[in-house]
């Protein structure tokens, strides 16, 4: 199977380099009868768009999605859906000078070692530009999950550098450029980001994602577990270095008597597991958390090597995010949605549109 | 592809329930010419074996591996290698009483919801018994990686509950029942585990794994990244709730100027990335860390539900580990080895047994 | 994905060499709730068994199937079903002398070229012994297809050498050792086979398979077409050199006005297509035909080469079928059933258990 | 894995409807360093192009290939290669009238039954228009196979209706519009086709393909056999109803003493097997043959049903080939080339770039 494809039954194949003529994806296995229009992609693409605020990269892409196939008279037909976005704002000159340099912390060196050749323009295939198509494909998955099951997938920023939210208000997340759950800290964050940008440095971030109304029974043991697939999907996002489900690394210091989520006639009494047991959804809210490293594209000079092994000073003058984690929120949502839709189809294949199993524990919401 | 199969080119398919007649696996895609004997499996199976010390489950399994196919006159032939282990010490009676109960924190409830039926004997398919075959398959991968590339994969316990190692001595790890890197703490750990067992409770743990001598260039962008595959492989292990690569969640609070690993003629100056950039190995030591939840099989009673939705009191009197993380060390090693061998074959397929790419940065060892 | 695995959602992985300790398979993706017992396998295994009549190989295998996993209290649980058959009647001595020889028409030479090593005992992995597990797995598929959809899969021998059936009576097929549809020719066939066996030679054969009550809509364009999957499944059977769907090669000389099957309110007026259009089932009987080459294991001596490149005379004195096509009938049925069940699950995944689409053309039966 | 994807390591994913905005493909797994330019696709696309002669459909497509990704400065980088062709000559009006009709012999009915919706414009996804991208992808495979191994893949028409070649001259094939191996019959074929077109009817055809210089050892037993993959690849081409390897159905009447290809120090004495034994290449020329049904798009009226189940008269007035098999020749070549390249990469993965195995039998050329 293609290494640029993701998903077993809902299969997304992406292609394209950051500064090539276009990026795109093919979404295969999508059920027929889903209404899809180019405008449906606008909202989420805008949420991850560069140049959205002064706190993110100033690259300006129209990101107009063209639907090339799989949709007839506005409805999916069951054939592969191809989506295309032309690259318009490329500025390859920004990158010409580093074509023969290895930027510390970048994939320049590893692509060179693997393939013996690389497309240096804007990081080529290793650029986060690729994630645009994940978000586009995720829009289809979000729509199907919401229409069929009422599943809602929502992410937010739960940490930037040392800063954590003081409070938590999900409704606040979409009302500030940081996907931050506490409006009172927005000014603080803006000042922090301005100072960071001036310094020429960058910082890491943590993104949390929750999916509600996920039915119990999704996920395929042993090597197709729901949490295993989520881990792969989220770790595959650029700059991710860690993935947690439920309490994540917090479980290391927990006692079993504290961790195990009690089943009661009113539902689960807690949700330390994050909505997954044995790789299968419990019906509780799905909770995961992702760690993003600080981008290594800095204006701060550093010595490195070139393709000849000689020492060179590297300064990255391109347009970059001081905190790549901010725009990663909709990307994480998209990957969670794609995993869930794929698992929903896989469950239907093996177990059918099964009726009620008794008892159906009411999901515990605020876990 | 089977959800009980793992790996694209080195494909491991496992089968078997905890208290069924046997467990086994089929390892397909293994190169011909590798010497394999039943004794080769003994060491790692012993490392993960139950009943190894009083600090782990007292289930005693001989775990004798029978090689059913794929090996002729002691050498692999390139055909599928089937390994079989008969279950001998089953004691199903231990579990009879909970056949209709949902143990909090277990997969009982989710298997029931997914399939409408489950094998309750010892947790059936969801039991950690399945991981025995991962370790067995991992032995083949470890052998090939060591012989072909000198790759060494070593894990250790880096945290139990609140306890962390005071010092780090890799040579100490195999000399105590806790895979602990600081011998001076062994007595402390024994006392801690004794008290825990007496209390009827359990605790979580963290396992670290390092792989050295991994050549640069292994890993397939975008959805077959080395770190993505590792995340999936490790998260698929029973009780795992978090996976980190390199500095993991530590990157959230890092600055880019701190995180980026500098390339020098003497090698990388640091290894915050954990040996992976852009999903491809750098040639540095591969570093990952895994969080294990505390087992939910406790002697401490708790109210739960039965399959009829009625409230029942659950007490688990079977043989269980107060800290499942301890025996998980060789399991984590096995999954890392299987991922690496699979990626090595995938790299060879696309890029061949490529010669030297210049420059070949010397790996930084002590990162 | 493993090259010893077959099927996308119903995945069958086989292992084992002809004269190794055992052969077996793992059937994954099977829906839960199907009643399966060891006795269920007996009938079809007996139909393909060696030593069934004097007209087939005199190797006598008990072929007792042990169910190792995936079945609890006689019912499938949704976890992988492992089936094992021990090899009992091996007589490796029969083959010792040809360990270093390449038998013309056998896989000896190609396995040697590919792997640089081979298991010479009874042809090792390339032996038709492997097909025993296809038949065993096929039993599960046949049962599910019959219970869920009333699908019946039946094969027969439609040619041996130059001999073709004079008449066609499906009920006759199971009442003679040749799966022949015209009882009146059985004596003629027995005399033919006796003479052939005496001569030390072998002959080819053609097997036809029909599947009735296949619902319309099964099959996934473009590269998962029902006919494409059937072609792959049937061509993968030992000694197969050709596969036809519907009229097969007969279409080359047909006119479009003759070939196209007319749709009428009473159903299709003909079935030249063999029940498949555009890679999707029409609801008509599925018709396919397979060509089996004559076995190359002959008592007739022939010069060949050994592994050193020297000329050697080869005489195969082992127990072999003068016409391997005879016993291939249940194998073909099994592969058709496995393809159909896999496609049924794939269809359900993407399109659900869809209700009636109008118009549902009544299937034309006698095509 | 996507059902619109083909190949395990060299994975081709196609998309697009006959009269949608565009068709395209993504070729993943291609080794780096292969020189590819848009002009490279022109020759084979022209060979399969409609409107090439008066004997084929008069639809005129420019078929200009745009390379969207995976190629940098004219060389493949190892990242997915996306190819796009805009549809220009669509004439949807030709098809408007049959939007609600089921054309006998077409996929109209089965797509409707499967998906409950279909794109009727030019047959939508089921149109042979899709094969354009197979030919484009095949160009890359042909180039790599020729450069690396000297493999040549050549097809020709071996039968139209009742007409078979009187002689065989491979050099003649590319010098007439019928890919016919005997120039002396071209006039006869032109008259035959003119009469056929006037009659409004169509006819079937047979295409043969040979691949020379294929190294021994390619092909993966058991379910990834070279012949199994070829059968799937060729059967997946529109209108194909039969596939043969080597002597194909001719083996049914053969004796084993006649069929088995003798190994001699000078090479194989014959090639009845068609270059494959046990699913692995022998080093002899690979021979396969494919049966194409007559197109069902006829000007001859016929009663059929519409989507409401009512009887309607169908007349297809679009632009169609009276013999689709003619233009299928380069499509068959492309599929053979794609299978061979995929198997070459798979072989390299498991067995490496193996050196000489002794004895390397000289291939027998004229088999």
From TrEMBL, chains A, B, C, D:
Gene3D superfamilies: Chorismate synthase AroC (3.60.150.10). FMN binds at residues 125-127, 238-239, 278, 293-297, 319. NADP(+) binds at residues 48, 54. It catalyses: 5-O-(1-carboxyvinyl)-3-phosphoshikimate = chorismate + phosphate. Its EC number is 4.2.3.5. Pfam families: Chorismate_synt. Pathway: Metabolic intermediate biosynthesis; chorismate biosynthesis; chorismate from D-erythrose 4-phosphate and phosphoenolpyruvate: step 7/7. Signal peptide: none annotated. PROSITE patterns: CHORISMATE_SYNTHASE_1, CHORISMATE_SYNTHASE_2, CHORISMATE_SYNTHASE_3. Reduced FMN (FMNH(2)). Keywords: Amino-acid biosynthesis, Aromatic amino acid biosynthesis, FAD, Flavoprotein, FMN, Lyase, NADP. NCBIfam families: aroC, PRK05382.1. This reaction introduces a second double bond into the aromatic ring system. Belongs to the chorismate synthase family. Homotetramer. This is Chorismate synthase. It comes from Lysobacter auxotrophicus.
């Amino acid at each position: 199977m293609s290494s640029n494809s993701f998903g077993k039954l809902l299969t997304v194949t992406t292609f394209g380099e950051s500064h090539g003529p276009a990026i795109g994806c093919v979404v295969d296995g999508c059920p027929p009868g889903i209404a899809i229009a180019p405008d449906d992609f606008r909202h989420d693409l805008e949420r991850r768009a560069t140049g959205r605020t002064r706190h993110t990269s100033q690259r300006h892409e129209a990101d107009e999605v063209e639907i090339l196939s799989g949709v007839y008279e506005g409805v999916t037909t069951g054939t592969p859906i191809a989506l295309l976005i032309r690259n318009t704002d490329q500025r390859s000159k920004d990158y010409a000078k580093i074509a023969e340099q290895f930027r510390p912390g970048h994939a320049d060196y590893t692509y060179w070692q693997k393939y013996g050749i690389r497309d240096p323009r804007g990081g080529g295939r290793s650029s986060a530009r690729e994630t645009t198509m994940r978000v586009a494909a995720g829009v289809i998955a979000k729509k199907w999950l919401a229409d069929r099951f009422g599943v809602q997938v929502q992410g937010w920023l739960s940490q930037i550098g040392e800063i954590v939210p003081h409070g938590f208000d999900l409704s606040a997340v979409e009302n500030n450029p940081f996907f931050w759950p506490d409006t009172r800290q927005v000014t603080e964050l803006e000042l922090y980001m301005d100072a960071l940008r001036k310094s020429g440095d960058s910082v890491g971030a943590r993104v949390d994602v929750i999916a509600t109304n996920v039915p119990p029974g999704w996920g395929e043991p042993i090597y197709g577990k729901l949490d295993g697939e989520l881990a792969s999907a989220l770790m595959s996002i650029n700059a991710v270095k860690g993935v947690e489900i439920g309490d994540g690394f917090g479980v290391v210091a927990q006692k079993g008597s504290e961790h195990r989520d009690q089943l009661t006639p009113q539902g689960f009494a807690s949700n330390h597991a994050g909505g997954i047991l044995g790789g299968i959804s419990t019906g509780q809210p799905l909770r995961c958390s992702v760690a993003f490293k600080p981008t290594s594209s800095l204006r701060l000079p550093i010595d490195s090597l070139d393709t000849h092994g000689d020492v060179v000073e590297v300064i990255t003058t391109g347009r970059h995010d001081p905190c790549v984690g901010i725009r990663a929120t909709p990307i994480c949502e998209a990957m969670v949605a794609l995993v869930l839709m794929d698992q929903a189809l896989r469950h239907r294949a093996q177990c059918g549109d099964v009726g009620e199993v008794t008892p159906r524990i009411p999901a515990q919401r605020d876990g």
